[in-house]
Amino acid sequence: LNQDHIKTTLRNAIDQNRIAHGYIFSGQRGTGKTTTARIVALCLNCEKGPTDKPCGICPSCVEIAAGGAVDVIEIDAASNRGINEMRELRENVRYQPARDRYKIFIIDEAHQITNEAFNALLKTIEEPPEWAVFILCTTESHKIPATIASRCQHFSFRSVDFNDLIARMRDICRQEGVEADEEALAVLAQSGEGSVRDSLSALDQAIACCGNKLDAAQVRALLGAFGIDAMAQVSTALAAQDGSAMLGLVDEL
216-223 vs 182-192: helix axis angle to the nearest 10? Predict the structure, then answer.
C-alpha cells in the first residue's frame, strides 16, 4: 500500500535486467519492507524470470511464497547479529544456488548487526558473486554503516495513507463477514499511525472483542482512544470556564 514509487522502480529494473546485488529497504514498521523483499525474490527466481509478473505456480514461486525455498535465506538480525553469524553467511554466499537463478539473502532488522559483523560482511557486499542478492530491511537506516549503504540501492518506504488503510480494512471486513461503520474503521486506522500491520492487529483485536459488528464506541474503549464528543465537552467547558466539568472529564478519560 502506498509504495508505488518503489514498485515502479523495481519493476523497471527487473524489466531491464538491471538487478543490483545489494538493496536497503527502510521505513517504519508495518509498511511492507519484508513482504516486498519476498516479492522481489519471487520475481528474480520465477522459472519465467527475472520477471515483474511471477507465475506463482512454478516450484520456485510456490516454495518462496511458503517460506521454504532453499535459495532464499531469511535471517533475523535481532538474534543473528554477531561476527560468527556473518562469517557463516559469507561462507554460504560462496556456493552457487541449489536450483534457482539467484541466492537471495533477506536480512530483517539489519540495523541490529554489530559493527564488527558488518565489517565481516563488507567485502562480500562489495564484491558479491554474480548469483548473490542481499536485501537489508530496517526501521533505522541511519544505523547501517556508510560503507555498506554506499554499496546498496536504498528504497525508503512511506507510512501508509489514512484512506488507503481504511479501504484495506473495509475489504478485509467484507471478506470476513464483519460489519464495521466508517467511524470504527477510522479509529482502527488512527491507532496504526501509518503501519498496516499495527492497524490490522487492532482490527483483529476488535473482532475478537466485539464480534461481527464493530461499534466505534466499543472500539475506542478497547483501544483507550477518545472520541470527538470528548473534544466537544472540552470546548464547552473551556468556553464556560467551568473547571469542575473539565476536571470531571479528565477523571473520566
Answer: 20
